[in-house]
Amino acid sequence: MFLIILGLVLAALLSWVYLRWQNLKQYWAKRGVAHLPPHPIMGSLTFLQKKNPSVWMVEMYKKFKAPYIGIWLFWRPALIINSPDLARNILVKDFSCFRDRFLSSGPSDPIGSLNMLTVKDPLWSTIRRRLTSAFTASKLRSLQPLVNTKARELVQRIKNTEDKTKLSLRPYPPQHLFSDYTTDVSATAAFGVETNATLTGKDPMRTVTGAFMKFDVFRGLSWISVFFIPSLVDTFRFTVFPKWATDYFTKIYTIVSEQRLEQKRTEEPRDFLDVLLKLKEDSAKNNEGVSDDAILAQAVIFLFAGFETTAAALSFVTYELAYHPEVQERLYKELRELMDKSPNEQYDMSELAELPYLNAVMKETLRKFAPMAWLDRVALEEYKIDDHLTIPAGTPVYVNSIGMQYDSKYFPDPKQFDPDRFMPENEANLTPFTCMPFGEGPRGCLGKRFGQMSLRYGLSYLVLNYKIVPLPGAPKPDEVEIEKRGLSLVPGEKIFVDFVSRM
To answer: For binding heme, which residues are annotated in this chain's numbering (predicted)?
Structure first.
């Protein structure tokens, strides 16, 4: 009798699963939305660990010339947005319905779940409002000496190589060198600690950021869950960052914050760490519920997002410049002209930020190699996409920014590295919401100006001091393999260039 009952239960369960699957796989077809047939387990995510999501997003954009595409995150229906008008609605006009990002960690991972990237509203609004003060022009100017010093150390690091006639980074790939530089800049700004990775390549903080860039099977599964199936995070105790790394950050933050509190308080916060401490103090006064974990989480994500994205951008832009000497020389002349006017032989932040061709080179680099290919949101209530489609509350939505950035309708010959697209006289004619490397709307990248400053200084001093030359037989920029196991757009292979002194 028991076996009969067990058999009936299993049969009923299998029937339920089968019927649910049959209904689920018709979800987008019933709504008349373009889609590919889903995998019975992975849904549309069969590409994971095989190709970078950025590559997949571009492929999906080209395959379906439609304003939106239906996909499945395992068994959960989701929508890819390929239209700049719909992107504007989701990111700005109807932001109240899309305040939260879909990616999320859980209570078992407070540092991963409470940072600005993952935290939900209303705590997000409280933290965002308070942290905005850390990125005003005056605050960024206070960081100018730090960034200027580290950019000069970046040049000195190359000068310290053994071959004084042909300064090659072989066998040391530029992305490692640039990660040393961005670790120093971001770690000092975030934690108020002095690091020395740019000159030496070694520092305890650099050991931690180095671990951020490594993906084993467990780390890959952790990130897949955080980004695509957050309900599994607590079940398997997944974390955004390795536990030993968050323990290290906790120790550093505790020591430095105690030192700051013992010092005489100035009326205005001096750096990002001071802003965090002020946020903690105000939260306690106003009973806003911002925990110590939430404060630490902001410092950690500032370091992580700042170091990786800027290092990747520096790697890609130097590689593009090596293969486009005409662009490089035009940029050099602009930088040389500004430096010749400087009385102290160093760049001023405001003057550097106003150089049109430097900005155009940076923007074109980020168009081709946007650190994050998509902007994820989740509908908090039923939402009308257009006259043909309404999505229920809880539907994940992905604005396919990288797809639009590779659309020849908006950017002719999109694989070509052409900074002139972003010169002032041409940029004014670009379609809004077709190039969004820092996101758009209220949930756009808070550290955008800091990241731009770090990239601007590092690139400027490199081009001012060196000609960047490609190596024979190396892959061209569009042939460089993109990291398959990670989720951000970074090189998946070691790329090398030669730095030839201009002196």
So the answer is: 445
Sheet strands (E) in 300-424: 375-378, 383-386, 389-391, 396-399
| Topology (CATH) of 31-501 | Cytochrome p450 (1.10.630)
CA 225, 85, 372, 239: dihedral to nearest 10 degrees? -20
Q: What distance in Å separates the CA atoms of residue 64 and residue 71, rounded to the nearest whole number?
A: 12
Name the one residue in this structure whose structure tokens are 């066998």. 171
What residue numbers does the annotated binding site cover? 445
Which helix (H) or strand (E) segment is 212 a member of?
Answer: helix 204-212
For 378, the token pair is 């989740």
| 50 burial type by CB count under 10 A (0-12 exposed, 13-18 middle, 19+ buried) | exposed
Q: Tens digits of per-residue pLDDT, 173-223?
A: 678 899 999 999 999 888 888 899 999 988 999 988 888 777 777 777 888
What are the residues whose beta carbons fall under 8 Å from the beta carbon of 398, sequence distance 6 or more? 57, 71, 78, 79, 80, 81, 374, 375, 376, 377
Beta-strand relationship, 497-501 and 68-73: unpaired
In this prediction the pTM is 0.92
Residue ranges covered by each domain of the chain: 31-501
